[in-house]
Amino acid sequence: MHEYEFDLIPPAAGTFTTAVALSTFTYLMMEIPELQEQLHNEISRNVGAATPSGEHRKSCALMEATILEILRFISHVPLNLPHYTLQDTSIGPYRIPKDTQVGCARVGCSGVV
Ligand code: HEM
């Protein structure tokens, strides 16, 4: 069981990403107290004493946008993981044969650099 878990979830996947996202969120709440107050009000208004669920995302637009912006800003896994093409394909003028290793520079997509 332990080996299976290790294969499925390498040490960095899920731990580093989640820790950095949460610590960046905490840091920004300290740096931008007005945003912290707006988020607090939004949660009090829309979630109140209920147990938060995925349904609350619809009514907590500022929280949703804040989380998405944090994930863009910290640009986790900047070059993604390597993938292979399953068939011949093309992107614009570039022909990419089957079994080519491809990567996605997510850091460029996020506009951080
Ligand atoms: C804020 C939290 C997280 C972020 C931003 C994040 C981001 C990513 C990204 C960008 C990739 C690469 C995807 C690709 O190249 O196709 C990835 C892969 C992966 N993540 Fe996460 N992740 C997060 C949390 C987690 C958690 C909680 C787990 C496990 C419990 C996890 C497990 C994995 C695994 C196993 C892969 C490899 C998937 C594969 O081989 O295709 N991640 N993650």
Describe the secondary-structure layout.
Blueprint: H1 2-8, H2 16-31, H3 33-46, H4 61-74, E1 83-84, E2 89-91, E3 94-96, E4 101-102, H5 106-109
Antiparallel strand pairs: 1-4, 2-3
Helix pairs in contact: 2-3, 2-4
Protoporphyrin IX containing FE binds next to helix 2.
The end-to-end distance, rounded to whole angstroms, is 41 Å
Overall number of strands: 4
In percent, how much strand structure appears in the residues? 5-15%
User: What proportion of the residues is helical, as a percent range?
Assistant: 40-55%
If you had to describe this structure to a student in words, what would you say it looks like?
The structure is a single chain. α2 packs across α4. A hairpin with a 2-residue loop joins β2 and β3 (94-96). The protein has five helices and four strands. The model has no long low-confidence stretch (mean pLDDT 87). The N and C termini lie far apart (41 Å). It has two domains: 3-73, no CATH class; 77-113, no CATH class. The strands form two sheets. A two-stranded antiparallel sheet has the order 1-4. A two-stranded antiparallel ribbon has the order 2-3. It is mainly alpha-helical and 113 residues long. The protein is elongated, with a radius of gyration of 19 Å. The structure holds protoporphyrin IX containing FE. The site of protoporphyrin IX containing FE (HEM) has 12 residues, from α2.
